[in-house]
What we know:
Blueprint: H1 2-22, H2 28-34, E1 39-54, E2 66-73, E3 77-85, E4 88-89, E5 98-110, E6 113-119, E7 122-127, E8 130-131, E9 139-144, H3 169-173, E10 199-204, E11 210-215, E12 218-222, H4 225-233, H5 243-249, E13 253-258, E14 266-269, E15 275-283, E16 295-302, E17 307-314, H6 318-325, E18 334-338, E19 343-349, E20 356-358, E21 364-366, H7 373-379, E22 388-397, E23 412-416, H8 424-428, E24 446-451, E25 458-464, H9 466-474, E26 483-487, E27 496-498, E28 514-516, H10 517-520, E29 525-529, E30 541-549
Antiparallel strand pairs: 1-19, 1-30, 2-3, 2-14, 3-13, 3-17, 4-16, 5-12, 5-15, 6-7, 8-14, 9-13, 10-11, 15-16, 18-29, 19-26, 20-21, 22-25, 22-30, 23-26, 24-25, 27-28
Amino acid sequence: MQNTSFFRKIFLVASVAFFYSCDKDFNAIGDDLIGGNHFDLATMDLEVIGYNQQIKAIQSNNLTSNQLGIYVNSAFSTTVANFATQVTLAEPNPTIGESPVVQSIELEIPYYSHIDKVENGKNIYILDSIYGPLDGRMNLSVYESGYYMPNLDPDDNFVSSKLFFTDDNHLFDNVKVGARLNNGPDEENINFRFSPEEITETTKDNAGKETVTKRAPAMKLNLNTTVFQEKILKAPAGKLVSNDVFKEYFRGLYFKVESNGGASRMATMDFKKGKITIKYKAKTEITTDDDETMEDKTLVLNLSDNTVNLLQETNLNSSYNTAISTPKVNGDEKLYLKGGQGSMAILELFGRTDVIGYDKNGKLTQGPNNVPDELDRLRNPADGKKLLINEANLVFHIDSDAMKNSSEPNRIYLYDFNNNRPIVDYYNDGTPSATNDAKKIKQVFSGILNVDPVSKKGTTYKIRLTNHIKNLINNKDSTNVKMGIVVTEDINVVASSKLKATNIKTVKGDAFTKAPRASVMSPLGTILHGGNSPDGSKRLKLQIYYTKPN
Length: 550
């Protein structure tokens, strides 16, 4: 086991070194060809204009993970996250049997967790992707949903997919059916908490032999047996014949959270791994009319198909509210990145100064050419000696004072804002994760939080965009696109979600119609020093490391 771990680490280091070295224009090969005395190694810091952009209601259906709970973040706002999902039959058209009688109904959704240690044969777990005070509790209600979630949009003649948005809570709250279904003990509803306890169950077979099973922590709720007896086990003929029919008949579940007066918490969860297990007894073909024996049976419902995360932002911090509602066209001092229905920043590399231009032969001309002068000079050096770019980075310094009482996101994501897609450095980075965590791949492109070992607080994020900068300098037809920067829950998810409003403009007048989906999946935020920060040592700049022939 130790040898395996050792070789895995060696492989990781070698992989990072390989991908890093592949991006160098001149390393050992250059030294062999020219010699170390013919090059000057240098660095430069170039201007970056960054300004805030509010993200209002945004598409939040069918995310790969969702938020549930209440998270109070003093630097940003209070986020209330509800959730709605369709429910499907694990086996359509089940044989229920005669005279079914429910024994128990349990809803179970696993949490993200890992084993911290083992004590007295018991696994001690730590919940991952959970935020707020450890003793946080809330009022959790799970209702039968009265709102049907179609696959296709009836307002578009069923041509396009039906989209749901973060502000659609009213659609579900206004038509919830009956009382809450989770009618068990208080800790399952009015005093609910995300418990890290290992789940242990003991079962007996017909001979009385006991079997103990253990599994990772999960939301485990007892549901109203009467409702499911009548709605599912005694469903009208044909309502369980297929999932298409069933989803119209039983329209799903709506999870609603409310404060119970104390501190609350929020968790990011994969609801699609959840299920409802209905255990019941019924007469079947193995019994006779004279036999009063009932067979034990199980029917499983999966929390799958269409889902939507429903987010409400209240109690906005005044500084945050001002920054995202009145961004400065020439750049903000602080950049506010907030997941969910939150905010992002837009970056313009090389500044906006444009008083000179060059013709196609690289000859200086009078007047602007719609290319920033900083980029023009890199493309057309006065001495004719073109720079060889070894590395280019954006280093974002966290505003430690503003973030001192808040959790920082583990990662941020830089992308091509003009075209809503990753930049070339994202695609070129194939480095694995040091911990086999798929969310921590692409460690050269990075955007991973750097943490101070003493304070245990985040200090910076660094994103590498070497190939993007090379392309801009070496290919004069390349467009200097604006960059978007957001928090991300999962670096693998690069698709975009649509904004509900179609007429939103940035402070520069650009159309703003989409934002990265992985940002919608995160409840966290961070405050970064921008290009106009009064602290020059932490001001956002484009750092370029280059080699220039003598």
